[in-house]
């Protein structure tokens, strides 16, 4: 799933490509992705694109005061096309194409989603905050107002909840997902199961610094890359996420994984849990 660094880099790249261009039309190839009906998607036709920005993991296209908001979900992506077909895209629920944006110079964007689980969401709204997911976003971790005190309040409010889940919850902190929460906790040498409210003052300051450093470094690596390069760049720089069975680059221990119903987390026991492997909840249930 694209997270804050990739979505921010994607927004910057698309803003440069689309700024000042007019949208000829938006073709919806998979109607399940369109989550709004007022304004209609046809309201975007003929309007100029005034910029593309990011809210959490959402892409926000300002189209003449009407907004096209896109959440790429688990397997969605945006593909720039120097030339797109002149004929409208035909609806096809089996195609990876979810929607196509056609611009006035013949170029455009294909919005695609791999796999059979269709979670990509596209909204056309008068205000980005009309999208529920945006309205409930927590603070942006790279913003100036994301202070140690703000993070401390979030963790204390979360009580004994595992810190991994707290970092991933968008209403707590906007933009961190499964991958970067693994990387942040590894860099901070913290167990993903650590209770959120149990951090010492030193640990709180360390976590705050690590969040900003890890996301900032990832954004620096991604900034300026074409959309087609962002996924590979993210994957190649992960130390533990997606590295189960490989050696930890810090200590050389094996990277372990804990599986849940629809996802998993990766961590290094030596770096993060004092050498003690964490219980795999799904495996534990199978063994009972």
Automatic annotation (TrEMBL):
Which SMART domains does the UniProt entry name for this protein? Answer: Fapy_DNA_glyco, H2TH
Catalysed transformations (reactions): 2'-deoxyribonucleotide-(2'-deoxyribose 5'-phosphate)-2'-deoxyribonucleotide-DNA = a 3'-end 2'-deoxyribonucleotide-(2,3-dehydro-2,3-deoxyribose 5'-phosphate)-DNA + a 5'-end 5'-phospho-2'-deoxyribonucleoside-DNA + H(+); Hydrolysis of DNA containing ring-opened 7-methylguanine residues, releasing 2,6-diamino-4-hydroxy-5-(N-methyl)formamidopyrimidine
**Domain FPG-type residues, every copy:** 239-273
Q: InterPro entries, alphabetically?
A: DNA_glyclase_Znf_dom_DNA_BS, FPG_cat, FPG_N, H2TH_FPG, Ribosomal_uS13-like_H2TH, Znf_DNA_glyclase/AP_lyase, Znf_FPG/IleRS
Q: Which GO terms describe its molecular function?
A: 8-oxo-7,8-dihydroguanine DNA N-glycosylase activity; class I DNA-(apurinic or apyrimidinic site) endonuclease activity; damaged DNA binding; zinc ion binding
Q: Which UniProt keywords apply?
A: DNA damage, DNA repair, DNA-binding, Glycosidase, Hydrolase, Lyase, Metal-binding, Multifunctional enzyme, Zinc, Zinc-finger
Which CDD domains does the record associate with it? Answer: BaFpgNei_N_1
Superkingdom per UniProt: Bacteria
Keyword Ion transport appears in the UniProt entry: no
> A single Pfam family, by name?
H2TH
Q: Which family does it belong to?
A: Belongs to the FPG family.
Protein name (Swiss-Prot/TrEMBL)? Fpg/Nei family DNA glycosylase
Q: Which organism is it from?
A: Nocardioides marmorisolisilvae
List the taxonomic lineage. Bacteria, Bacillati, Actinomycetota, Actinomycetes, Propionibacteriales
